[in-house]
Specification:
With 370 residues, the chain is mostly helical. The chain is built from twelve helices and no strands. The longest helix has 41 residues, at 306-346.
């Protein structure tokens, strides 16, 4: 009998748990917003609690880290700008979109992020595009399918599924979630949220280079995002009554979103990526869509439309095509690295290879983007 390898399955278990945590965050956010809390104020409270949770962990991590992570002008500038895009803009767009559409649509739209990241990275020169390469064609085709799927979600509702007409308009917790107004506007907010998140992923590269401690960097970004979000909330909601937490339900959802959704989820994500890489993490994104759709239908009685379902399936298919293209690229880079090692070890400089780039034995490949 084969021996059970816990080390192999642990990252898989962690990623599945992470999807359930993220599903709870999405549903909790939706409930709080429908319950009447201001989306801008919610963003402030969420990241304030995330900062409180991450700050002591970041302090301990900084004490144990041999790399100096002092906050200088350069690192402060990168953290400020990254927080502005990745937290303040991103989370405010997400909250508005979640309020105007639904939690299931929000989770489906999140599968756009790898494709949007590829497009932005290609325009920024961080991603090589070769139309004669099968992997580049796969990423382009996958991106197009993702975009078409997102447009289908926003524009093609179609008939309702699961006999939604026979379901009560009240959720299991007594909130009325029946509102089809501003659906398109909500989807546009969610698309903007995905674009902001994709830019945020790219900006984390120089931000981490200026402050090479992931937990400390996350804590600083949450803190900076909290201050920026306070300014946005005060400008958009000058009435101080908007800052009141009116129920225990709102308090619990805000605490869960801050501590679990931002704090614990961040640690899980960072650990899984360090163990298996970013592609492994991205593969589990559609599981979140499935969990949120099922729970939102059963608990919150959200409506599911045929057009939205077809669009969500299209987005997931496009996601996996993009990830396949990235996986093939990673395999090629690995092969290239192995050939370089062989050349260095045996001195066979004349070995044949099919690489387009020249072999540079003394140049590390650590900056190659996977």
């Amino acid at each position: 009998m084969a021996k059970f390898n816990m080390e192999y399955y642990l990252p898989i278990i962690a990623m599945v748990v992470l999807q359930f945590i993220s599903a709870g965050t999405t549903l909790g956010n939706r409930v709080v917003l429908v319950d009447g809390m201001s989306p801008r104020v919610f963003v402030v409270y969420r990241h304030a609690f995330a900062t409180i949770f991450l700050a002591p962990i970041a302090y301990i991590s900084s004490r144990r880290n041999s790399v100096s992570c002092s906050l200088n002008l350069r690192s402060f500038s990168w953290i400020f700008f990254t927080s502005l895009i990745g937290i303040t803009l991103n989370q405010n767009l997400l909250s508005e979109g979640l309020l105007l559409s639904s939690s299931s649509i929000s989770s489906a739209m999140a599968n756009l992020i790898p494709a949007v990241t590829f497009v932005i990275a290609a325009f920024a020169g961080m991603e090589k595009v070769n139309i004669r390469s099968l992997r580049s064609i796969a990423k382009i085709v996958g991106t197009i399918i993702c975009v078409c799927g997102a447009l289908s979600i926003a524009l093609l509702k179609g008939p309702k599924l699961l006999n939604a007409e026979n379901l009560t308009s009240k959720s299991i917790i007594g909130l009325s979630l029946e509102s089809d107004d501003n659906w398109l506007l909500g989807c546009l907010f969610l698309i903007g949220n995905n674009v902001a998140w994709a830019i945020f992923l790219i900006l984390q590269v120089p931000a981490y280079a200026s402050h090479p401690n992931s937990i400390s960097l996350a804590a600083w970004m949450c803190f900076m995002g909290t201050l920026q979000s306070i300014a946005v909330a005060l400008f958009m909601d000058p009435n101080l009554n908007a800052w009141k937490i009116n129920s225990l339900l709102q308090l619990c959802c805000v605490l869960y979103s801050g501590i679990m959704g931002s704090g614990v989820a961040l640690c899980f994500q960072a650990w899984c990526i360090s163990m298996r890489g970013p592609l492994f993490s991205a593969v589990f994104n559609p599981l979140l869509t499935l969990i949120v759709t099922i729970l939102a239908t059963l608990l919150l009685h959200e409506k599911i439309y045929v057009g939205s379902l077809i669009g969500a399936i299209g987005v997931v298919i496009g996601l996996y095509i993009v990830l396949w293209g990235k996986a093939e690229e990673a395999v090629d880079v690995k092969d290239k690295t192995e050939k370089i090692v062989d050349i260095e070890s045996c001195g066979k400089i004349h070995c044949k290879n099919d690489l387009e780039d020249p072999l540079l034995p003394n140049k590390p490949l650590e900056n190659q983007e996977f």
